[in-house]
Structures are given as C-alpha cells and as structure tokens.
Amino acid sequence: MSFTGFKESDFKVFAIEGLEARMEKLIERVRPKLEALGSHFAAELSSLTGEEMFFHVAKHARRTVNPPNDTWVAFSSSKRGYKKLPHFQIGLFETHVFIWFAIIYESPVKKEYAASLKKELNTITASIPDDFVWSQDHMKPDAVHHREMKNGNLSGFVRTLAEVKKAELLCGIHIPRDEAVQLNGKDFIEKADSVFRTLMPLYELKKQVYSV
C-alpha cells in the first residue's frame, strides 16, 4: 500500500484494553502504514546516508501481558536489526507522532558516540532547530525542546549517554495527534524527509565511531 497519512483510528488503538485486542488492531490498522513508510524511507535514507538502509517494524513479540503504548518503524544499516546501531524511527504514541534519530541502551557504542558528539556539540547545537526535541528514553512520550537545551542541558544529556548503562539519546520532532491527522500522505512524507535531512549530522557521527 502507499502511505495515506495517519487517522484518528490509528491513535485510538492505544486506548484499547488488553494485549491481544490492542495488538490485533495495531496489526490491522497501523502496521501496514508503518510498512509503507518503511519501504519508502529505506530507499530515501539509503540515498541520504550512502549506506544500504533496511526497515524494521516493531513486532512487540516479547510482550506477554502489558499492551504496547507506542509502535514504530526503525531504519538502520543492518538487515538483522537496529537496536545496537544509531538509527532513525517513525512511530506514534496515543498523543503524537515521533520522527527521531536514536541511539538506545542496547547499543554497545554509546560511550564512543557520546565522545564524538561532545567534540561536535557546538556545531550540532547550532544545526538543530529550536522546535526539535530531545529525549533520554524512547519508551516515554516526554521530550525537551531544543531551545531549552542550549544552556548546558545538552552536554548533560551527552555525559549521561556515556556514563549511564540504560541511558539513551533521541532527537527529532513530535507532531501532536490533532496536527498529524491533518497531514495527507504526501505532506507527511515531505515533513519526515525534511526532518531526516536535518538530523543527518547526528547520524554522520556514526562514521567517526566505527572508524576508530
């Protein structure tokens, strides 16, 4: 299918009680849209990064009791998975859509990535728009606007990434639910493309990490 945009019914999935019932509707309503975005942006990001990129739609296979509060498609340079690598994500909570660059706690190169980011912190800080947001936990919907990170908070995030085992670093945008449902497929793809292009300096730091 081609991506036609997110609808109210996609977000309402996260209000459904029970693992089986929620997963049934996630698979029926949301997963096909994530797969369509995956197919489009795997090709797009391959062109942007100069690497072959693969998409991975969240399956939530390890869950046995609690239903997921969010879902996503991730993009990485590995066909086998994304969690150990710096990567990109598109997904949604009940309240909003997120479009991220992410390095999460499973990555074995967090410390090295943090060191590279620290060296380029002034450049990165200047390149990220004020309305972008940062997070330290991909499982929580909260995030901090970049405009609030310019007083030293971002260097604190970077230090935490290097020193705390479970720490993560994510940067991108949140699109509130009421705004997301107003975007048709073409408009959403154009917006996501613009976000990924803005986030490329964060992804490019990966090259420093893996060249060491």
Features:
212 residues; alpha+beta; globular
The number of distinct β-strands equals 7
Structural class: alpha+beta
User: What percent of residues adopt helix (DSSP H or I)?
Assistant: 40-55%
Major sheet attributes: 7 strands, antiparallel
For the biggest β-sheet, the strand order reads 1-2-3-4-7-5-6
Poorly predicted regions are none
Shape: globular
Characterization of this structure:
The protein is an alpha+beta fold and about 210 residues long. It is built from seven helices and seven strands. The chain has helices spanning about 10, 20-50, 110-120, 120-125, 155-165, 175-180, 185-210, and strands at about 55, 70-75, 85-95, 95-105, 135, 145, 170-175. A seven-stranded antiparallel beta sheet has the order 1-2-3-4-7-5-6. Helix 2 packs across helix 7 (about 185-210), helix 3 (about 110-120) packs antiparallel against helix 5 (about 155-165) and helix 3 (about 110-120) packs across helix 7 (about 185-210). The protein starts with 7 loop residues before the first helix and ends with a helix.
Outline of the structure:
With 212 residues, this protein is an alpha+beta fold. The protein contains seven helices and seven strands, in the order H-H-E-E-E-E-H-H-E-E-H-E-H-H.
Please specify the SSE layout and strand pairing.
Blueprint lengths: L7 H5 L6 H31 L4 E4 L12 E7 L10 E7 L2 E8 L6 H10 L1 H7 L5 E3 L8 E2 L7 H11 L5 E8 H4 L4 H27 L1
Antiparallel strand pairs: 1-2, 2-3, 3-4, 4-7, 5-6, 5-7
